[in-house]
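Need fresh eyes. Consider my entry:
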Amino acid sequence: MFSGGSFGAFKTAAQGAAKRFTTQAGSNNVTYNAAMGALGATAIGSGVLLFNLNRTAAYANMEAEGLHPADYPFPQKKMLGTFDHASIRRGFQVFKEVCAACHSLDLVYWRNLVGVAYSDEEARAMAEEYEYTDGPDDQGEMFERTGKLTDPIPRPYANEEAARAANAGALPPDLSLITKARHGGVDYIYALLTGYTDAPAGVDIKEGLNYNPYFPGGSIAMAQNIFDGVVEYEDGTPNTASQITKDVVTFLNWAAEPELDDRKKIGAKAALLFSSLTLIALWIKRNRWHTIKTRKIVFNSPKNWGKSPFDKSK
């Protein structure tokens, strides 16, 4: 059993340990908070630096990687922005009359244009302007037929070899996903199409190539194809080079992300729903826990700390 002296010694030791623990815990807490603050400041500073570097129009290795494009105000880039569907329609006209001479659009079908930029009748009429190889028929022969909505946008070349032979060995890329396949997206494509210029002094461009500072290396096989008046818009929109480029880039962005409008609409609904659910959850938590969290626990110490609890004497 504990004697009065041993109980007093135990009490003293316990109080000393509690004091040391409190001091050490406080010191560790301060160190932990300082470390987490430094880590957070470093993360935020690094993020701001990378963001600014990404927005800078020029940086160290421009010749090898190309100039970084500026941030152009395409409406679909905004958080709740959507496509300009009139611009998509004009952009497809530019693609048909300019880009389709060399580039394919394998992942876009005539039916995809219905309800986006054209009516059903307009899309059918455009498809019927082309002949497609189909078959075999009952005799096992392939045959030619007019296009229909389920056909893809026709290719300019039958195969890759024919495309290279017609373009001095360069292969024009398929444009179905081009805005997602290039760093910078629509900004890069716009800057590339409008960035042709004469090569600066000291820069040699091989025969058959063209100088464009936004293209990695500066030398690009594709010549400049967009100029003022190269397309006549049916709706009377001014056909400046910048407007034509903006429209075709918008169309290519839609071709790569046709679900963008619906995705943002669903995202806005989801954000509203989960925000409402979060507020309800916070209210329920506060309502259910306030009686427990506002309780006051009081410890009444013994009147005589020096007396052993095992001492039966009065």
